[in-house]
Amino acid sequence: MPQVYVLTPVEFNSPAPLCDCVAHRFGNAADHPERVRRYPSDMTDTEWAVVRPLLPVPGWMRGRGGQREAYCHRAMLDAIRYLVDNGFKWRAMPADFPPWDRGYAFFRRWRGHVLVQEFHDRLRDRVRQMAGRDVEPTAGVIDSQSVKADAVVGADSRGFDGGKLINGRKWHVVVDTLGLLLGVMVTAADTGDRAAAKALLKRVTDAHHRLALVWADGGYTGSLGEHCLAAFALVLAIVRRSDDTRGFVVLPKRWIVERLFAHLMRTRRLARDYERSTTSAEAIVYWSMTMIMTRRLARSHSASVNRPGVGSASQPRATRRFAYDRSASTFAGTAPRPNKTAISSQVSGP
User: Fold this and answer.
1) 198 falls in which pLDDT band (50, 70, 90)?
2) Alpha carbons 239 and 9: distance in angstroms, whole number
3) Can you tell me whether residue 198 is helix, strand or coil?
């Protein structure tokens, strides 16, 4: 497994850097001004504290050559998160982020070296541990989702899904019982579910050797179950929908993967497939999931650290209220309103 950051005291290249990323500590990021965080997709300090130890060490720090990075890693991550969350073009990157070509080079490097998937997997392990689960899952759910493709998607990686009447691509995903992504494969929309499942399940079982059971819908019936049992020692359980069922009915286990698709479709870059290559489309899915997991880990971290009645200088207490904290706030402008009875007595008094 690639190395991760080692938090050891070092001398910074700038007099007083506000960021502790590798590019600031060992690279040339101090040559650029600090960025002011202002977008909802930007990582909070709590999220950065969770993400910081899980980032892979750049190749130039491991003797593999290359120039020292010139832009802050946190700013790079925020730029990609902003693109994934809002779905704009790379060339339309806001001016307060690093230049768009540097952001795209960072995205392409992480995609090519599978760093985004490794970063995603480390976050997923943390989320599973936070939920009291073992790091390695033993059961999962598989399903597919067809999405429309933009004109930039070539004919070699797009197709027409006759069942959904969608011309575009198809996501094939496997999730664990918590709804966390175990594997994703993007194909043309006319690719059959059973054919794609063989390749995807091989990829997932190679990475997760304890996976023994996968639930699926009726589209995965046939010889796929025998193939999974013989090739992967994996039991494929079909969750069927009753023919007498009318309207929307939540089916056992299948709702877990449907919830994942709902989360992904809220990411505007994934509302329509804009990626020229399927590897870039898969990387965008992983980036979207990292945003969900960092926020979940940050909420858990804040709930365990920020006790009721305890504030911090960097974040005013009025912005960190808990539903069960009924004590008076000391934040400016949030003083309790005077009692109506006291006001009336003052007005009608002598």
Assistant:
1) very high
2) 54
3) helix
Amino acid at position 87, single letter:
G
Count CB atoms within 10 A of the CB of residue 297: 20
DSSP letter at 27? Answer: S
pTM of the model: 0.79
- Sequence-distant (≥ 6) Cβ neighbours of residue 271 within 8 angstroms: 87, 147, 265
DSSP label at residue 43: P
Is a pLDDT exceeding 70 seen at residue 18?
no
Look at domain 136-242+250-276 and name its CATH class. Answer: alpha beta
Q: Which two tokens stand for residue 65?
A: 């050559």
CA distance 79 to 100: 9
d(CA 43, CA 5) in angstroms, rounded, equals 18
Helix ranges (DSSP H) in the chain: 22-25, 45-51, 73-86, 100-112, 115-130, 193-207, 224-232, 254-265, 278-305, 340-348
Q: For the chain, give every domain's residue range.
A: 22-113, 136-242+250-276
Strands 181-188 and 166-176, by their bridges, are: antiparallel
Find the range with the poorest average confidence among 164-178, 262-276, 298-312. 298-312
